[in-house]
């Protein structure tokens, strides 16, 4: 009995974009700066590299410009090969890819639908929770505060809120229990 083997999937990786002269300069100098100053922050490192680049003479910048040019040429060659391989792969696997693509699209739409439904349910639960919460009746102290606060604000215009709270708390503590029970509970 023979084992069934799956066809190996070809994975094409797009070539990395080329670095410009400044980025090549930064890559070259970064390690030296980090070794001389290991506690340097990323922001300080960027500022230092920028200042060093600005101070470079034209011959040193030309060296990095040439490297950048070689990088661009390498990228363009690899990009052409990648595009050709992508076309070949697309032609060879066009019969299989349509059904796979349909399945992928269907799966994505189902996933999106599930996420949307979960979000709707979450919002629905939140609204239900908020509407179910009933306000508790205010305590005697809060009723007392509501009654005396306007007068306190009028009498003590320049006091801060914390100081007003202290005065109201003192008034509440000095209020006889019978008056609290009758008027505020």
From TrEMBL:
Domain of life: Eukaryota
Residues of the DNA-binding region: 15-83, 134-185
InterPro entries the UniProt entry points to: HMG_box_dom, HMG_box_dom_sf, HMGB
Domain HMG box as annotated: residue spans: 15-83, 134-185
Keywords: DNA-binding, Nucleus
CC terms in the record's Gene Ontology section: nucleus
Region Disordered: start-end pairs: 92-121
Record-level Gene Ontology MF annotations: DNA binding
Composition bias, Basic and acidic residues: 100-121
PANTHER family per the UniProt record, alphabetical: HIGH MOBILITY GROUP PROTEIN DSP1 (PTHR48112)
Protein name: High mobility group protein dsp1
Taxonomic source organism: Anaeramoeba ignava
Lineage of producing organism: Eukaryota, Metamonada, Anaeramoebidae, Anaeramoeba
């Amino acid at each position: 009995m023979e084992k069934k083997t799956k066809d190996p999937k070809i994975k094409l990786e797009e070539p990395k974009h080329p670095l410009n002269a400044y980025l090549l300069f930064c890559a070259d100098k970064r390690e030296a700066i980090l070794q001389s100053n290991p506690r340097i922050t990323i922001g300080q490192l960027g500022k230092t590299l920028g200042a060093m680049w600005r101070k470079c003479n034209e011959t040193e910048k030309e060296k990095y410009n040439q490297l950048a040019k070689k990088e661009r040429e390498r990228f363009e060659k690899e990009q052409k090969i990648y595009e050709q391989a992508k076309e070949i792969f697309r032609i060879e696997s066009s019969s299989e890819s349509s059904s796979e693509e349909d399945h992928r699209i269907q799966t994505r739409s189902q996933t999106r639908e599930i996420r949307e439904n979960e979000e709707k349910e979450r919002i629905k639960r939140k609204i239900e929770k908020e509407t179910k919460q009933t306000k508790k009746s205010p305590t005697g102290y809060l009723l007392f505060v509501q009654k005396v606060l306007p007068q306190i604000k009028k009498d003590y215009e320049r006091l801060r809120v914390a100081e007003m709270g202290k005065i109201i708390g003192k008034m509440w503590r000095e209020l006889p229990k019978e008056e609290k029970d009758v008027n505020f509970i």
